Amino acid sequence: MNDAPAPAGMRTFVAVLANTAVANVSTSYLWFALTFWIYAETRNVLATAVIGAAYMLFVSLFSMMFGTLVDRFRKKPVMAIATLIAIAVFLADAGLFFAVGERGVVDLSLPWFWIFAVVMLAGAVVEQLRSIALSTTVTLLVPDEKHANANGLVGSVQGVSMLVTSVFSGLSVGFLGMGWTLVIGISAIILSLLHLLTLSMPEPRVVQAEGASPGWVDIRGGWRAVRAADGLLFLVVFSALNNLVGGVYMALMDPYGIDLMGVQGWGIGFAVASTGIIVGGLVVARTGLGSTPVRTMLLVAAGISVVGALFAIRESSWLFLVGVWVYMALVPAVEAAEQTVIQRVVPYREQGRVFGFAMTFEAAAAPVTALAIGPIAEFLVIPYMRTEQGLAQWEWLLGRGESRGIALIFVAAGVVCAIIAVGAMLMPQYRAIVRQYREAAPGPDPAASSVVPGPAPGLAPQPVAEVPTGEEPVSGPAGEPEPRG
Predict the structure, then answer these.
(1) pTM for this model (two decimals)
(2) How would DSSP label each residue in 301-357?
(3) Distance of alpha carbon 332 from alpha carbon 467, whole angstroms
(4) Which of 307, 320, 359, 437 is the most exposed place for a label (fewest CB within 10 A)?
């Protein structure tokens, strides 16, 4: 039996991917606008750092629950409910904004801004539920040998979303203000929900095995699934450490860009730089990640570190934009590699919890750095680098300028990231996950595609029952029907 998915399955994947792009654009438009708006109004690095850190912290807190929901329910209803919740949250936030007024919300000494920001990020976090579901649909609808390519397409879609978001968020805040930005963003999210409801994504209703955890947050199940694949925990830990240092860029990239180019200029500039994600994702979609995605991941992560250390080494908007473009172009390979490994070594019915488990720890890392680096940058490094003593000490490396403090932090973060990536390749856990990935590859016998891989050691099987839906019975990973209950 051929393991290629049915044409309808591929069409479904493309349709879901397109709808996710619309949803990402709508949600990110509001989230980017919040960051641009508050920094443009206050010029406070600490405020943007806290906002970014709070977002990642919320993602970390809810990712395990999101992964559990993805495993326990059909993917389309999960996506639709997530979008509906986001709409309700954003509508409530818009009501607060118009009731208090823009001047009241932007005043950091009052509670309204923090309430407004927290509610906004809650709506944005719900989008992560859709992202986890999307990762499992790759396994559901795309053959194993094309997983890396499909994950590259996902990266390109994220790049398109970032590009469109950056342009419209910056211009919207700069010319229309936050009020009209809220109206436009919420309207676009409603349209994405209406489009999602027209899609058909047939799949079986999951029936929980006897003894399965009845709670909404199956941490034990996620942990067991990660531990069952030899070396997979190493992959999660590396990504978490990488994100720990990456929190520096999350906290400081927008303030640095706005300082150089202004809010409208940085919005357009970041959109241009975001085309790097599109190009990088398309390269992965075209060429894949090679026979050893983990090695590709670590080598590319080291390259990203070098670029991050250099793109602000002189106070030049062109250097920064070119550097960010290259940085963005390399990111899809790292993200696609992790997803590709998980999609092969973890049984399909456990993947939601594994993606949720990984996101819990990876997302938790960045806020730690962002919360720490915001005050350090605002009160220590930036003031020091604006003194003649600071400029004289670091001029040989960073040149002179008003934003040399942020540049110094970028250099330090890049060096630390490079050390982590190179050191990871020397560990025995790296060799273990490489071996596990190769051993989990489908056999050459086409008949093997009709057999569902057994659960990883230590995992109890979860039978599924196919419920008649009147739709095409796409029930498991491409070419692999799920076992019937």
Answers:
(1) 0.70
(2) HHHHHHHHHHTTSSS-HHHHHHHHHHHHHHHHHHHHHHHHHHHHHS-GGGHHHHHHH
(3) 36
(4) 307
